[in-house]
């Protein structure tokens, strides 16, 4: 049976003092919760703080992006090895904000996926459709194209050391949430598409839902057969809210 996973994505929020209080609150709240896995993906400047505070706990940490290059003259970029130096277990790849605001293509996302795995980290690979795409009835086509950037290029086995996050773009930071049935339908589609290549990998694949997950809807969402946890945005910035979602994953 797949273990649930709850990952906080702090996005571009945080200050040292606030982070300390937030991380301590999360640590205190999930210390006894051992039936699922937990992680936070923080902005680059706070990786050292996260590593120091979370070391030895049941909360892992990771980054929100990385460069596909190992090193070189790429001013402002952060190499995979730099993240490994700070003990990152996870790195978010292809988030809709990276795709939309920073124009990252499927090819770039796939290159970053490969770079993360080569460095020994587990990529959290994001897929999802916009509102216009959903209303046009092409959700599955969009998600398939994004997923295939990894699936076709690297094979299904690559997903045995990865996490997929389905995040409907129209439900991120908007307060709107896909209904449990809507989310489940896309999660099932993702698992079936992977199963067409490798049934065993598909069965073990952790697929998170990311789209305005809150304490009030987490239990119902996580109760769906193909939803294996959440990639949590705004609620991950409030310790009590994030802990409540972690409890829902129990």
From TrEMBL:
Single GO cellular component term: cytosol
Compartments, record wording: Cytoplasm
Catalytic center residues: 95 (electrophile), 167 (proton acceptor)
Keyword Isomerase attributed: yes
Gene3D superfamilies per the UniProt record, alphabetical: Aldolase class I
Known catalytic reactions: D-glyceraldehyde 3-phosphate = dihydroxyacetone phosphate
InterPro entries with a match to the protein in the record: Aldolase_TIM, TIM_sf, TrioseP_Isoase_bac/euk, Triosephosphate_isomerase, Triosephosphate_isomerase_AS
SUPFAM superfamilies for this protein: Triosephosphate isomerase (TIM)
Enzyme Commission number, as recorded: 5.3.1.1
Pathway it works in: Carbohydrate degradation; glycolysis; D-glyceraldehyde 3-phosphate from glycerone phosphate: step 1/1; Carbohydrate biosynthesis; gluconeogenesis; Carbohydrate metabolism; erythritol degradation
Assembly description: Homodimer.
Family: Belongs to the triosephosphate isomerase family.
Function per UniProt: Involved in the gluconeogenesis. Catalyzes stereospecifically the conversion of dihydroxyacetone phosphate (DHAP) to D-glyceraldehyde-3-phosphate (G3P).
Protein name: Triosephosphate isomerase
Organism encoding this protein: Gallionella capsiferriformans (strain ES-2)
Gene name of this polypeptide: tpiA
